[in-house]
Amino acid sequence: MAVFDGVHYVISSSIQAEQRRELSGLLDLNGATSAPPHTHLIALAGSHTQHEHPGSLHVVSGMWVQRSIVLGKLQLEQYYSPDPTMIFSGIVACATDAARSSRPILIGNLSWMFHVDASGTLNNPRDSLLWYPVPRGGIPGLNDCEITVTNYTGTARDYLKKLIQVMGAKFTPSMSQSNKVLVAGYSPSPKTQRAVAWSIPIVNHTWLEDCFIAWK
Questions:
Q1: Which of 66, 97, 123, 140 has the lowest CB atom count within 10 Å?
Q2: What are the CA-CA distances from residue 67 to residues 7, 19, 26 (Å)?
Q3: Which residues are within 8 A (CB) of 16 and not within 5 positions of it... i.e. 6 or more apart?
Q4: Sheet with strand 170-171: strands edge to edge
Q5: Are the beta carbons of 73 and 94 closer than 8 angstroms?
Q6: Which alpha helices (DSSP H) does the chain contain, by range?
Q7: What's 127's DSSP letter?
Q8: Domain of 32: which CATH number?
Q9: Is this prediction's pTM over 0.85?
Q10: How many domains does the chain have?
Q11: Over the stretch 127-185, which tens digit does the pLDDT of each residue have?
């Protein structure tokens, strides 16, 4: 049985002519037909309209065609919507070790997924240090190390706090002689003065980011 047996397709005018011919050829070669009554509308992401072809059609993107052929069986249409609000349409997600693949794979963590859902934009997880998975247990030698910050406010302070915690260290809002490092945006400040008096190293945010990238 051919992959697209029983599929009667129509391709939206939103797709460029050359790509329409390519999709039509793939569909026809694998058992589909363009004869009515139509069952599927192949549309370009973000540009199709349901009233373009009225009726109870399955509206899918061109990726549905490609994935069905590659996998050798008809894929569920609901996972290949061209609707721009369906951000993860056509993306196969894995919550554990990913199988080897010659195709580019996005590897992100839960914070990245929450960001994508809230922003409606599929950013690369590498765009932020906090979006990429890290080894469990934190950086060796940094576990329970108390770190505080000064002269960073708002989102910058929140970012550094999360970075410190992800690395396995302990963020402290206030400063004491138990602190091992002070991250300072600029100097002087009451905290930097105490750090000098107590011989506590003073660094800026790039030190934290370099430690995170090197994971040491």
A1: 97
A2: 15, 16, 12
A3: none
A4: 170-171, 146-150, 181-184, 202-203
A5: no
A6: 17-29, 62-71, 110-119, 154-166, 190-198, 205-214
A7: G
A8: 3.40.50.10190
A9: no
A10: 3
A11: 888 888 888 888 988 887 999 999 999 989 999 999 999 999 999 999 999 999 999 99
